[in-house]
Design brief:
- It is a single chain.
- This protein has helices at residues 2-6, 11-24, 99-109, and strands at residues 34-38, 44-53, 60-66, 69-75, 86-90, 117-126, 136-148, 151-164, 167-176, 191-194, 198-208.
- The chain is mainly beta.
- The chain has a single domain (32-208), classed as Lipid/polyisoprenoid-binding, YceI-like (Lipocalin, Beta Barrel).
- Strands 1-4-5-6-7-8-9-11 form an eight-stranded antiparallel barrel.
């Protein structure tokens, strides 16, 4: 700058002046940690399994849902997943269009008297922009440890979220076989077959609970 070129101050004084300017400069671009908390009344957890029932010509999907889903996704300033991140689903509250199926699953497959909660602890978010977006729809993979029926394994969820200034909303899906979590495939009268693939789906509405967020 011309002012520095004509200054009679020594090099030490100039360095101190530059340091003062750098310290006072606003850190608008610095990323900050944020937390997205699930809004249960606007969110839903769901299982989907293909089955074949005797009186129907074609296979159909057995679908059970619950709004008993809680937790949050916490992200640090570097775009990493914070250790406080946690999702939980109360499996005792899952309901489908058949009471008999629900009772069977609770007693025999999920054994909810002993294993009532499914827990997912995210550890990494692959493909999520950094700094975090404040608008637009973004797809990424959420990796972590999922505990179901007393078994803990790594799980990968495909997530698509639409971000806004107040939070995010979207979907997350994963799938696995019955055997991966020591689950018994249902065997009931009039049930001809069940596909060995469980699909879990989350419809998420999450509120931003931190005042500060990346600019």
């Amino acid at each position: 700058m011309p002012g520095f070129a004509r200054s009679k101050a020594g090099p030490i004084a100039v360095l101190f002046a530059l340091a003062g300017i750098a310290a006072a400069w606003p850190e608008a671009s610095a990323a900050q940690s944020v937390r997205y908390r699930i809004v249960p009344e606007d969110s839903e957890a769901r299982y989907r399994v293909r089955e074949r029932i005797a009186r129907l010509e074609f296979p159909t999907d057995a679908v059970g849902t619950t709004k008993e889903i809680t937790g949050e996704l916490a992200l640090d300033g570097d775009g990493g997943v914070a250790s406080s991140s946690r999702f939980e689903v109360d499996l005792r509250t899952l309901r489908s269009n058949r009471d008999r199926r629900d009772r069977y699953l609770r007693r025999n497959t999920l054994e909810t008297d002993q294993y009532s909660i499914m827990t997912f602890l995210p550890t990494a978010a692959h493909g999520l922009p950094n700094p975090l977006p404040t608008s637009g729809t973004h797809a990424f993979r959420l990796v972590g440890q999922m505990t179901l029926h007393g078994v803990t394994k790594e799980a990968v969820w495909d997530v698509e979220l639409e971000f806004s200034a107040s939070g995010a909303r979207g979907t997350a899906t994963t799938h696995f076989t019955f055997g991966e979590y020591n689950l018994t495939i249902p065997r009931m009268a009039a049930l001809l077959s069940v596909t060995d693939d469980i699909r879990l789906e989350l419809d998420l509405v999450m509120a931003l609970v931190e005042d500060a967020r990346p600019q």
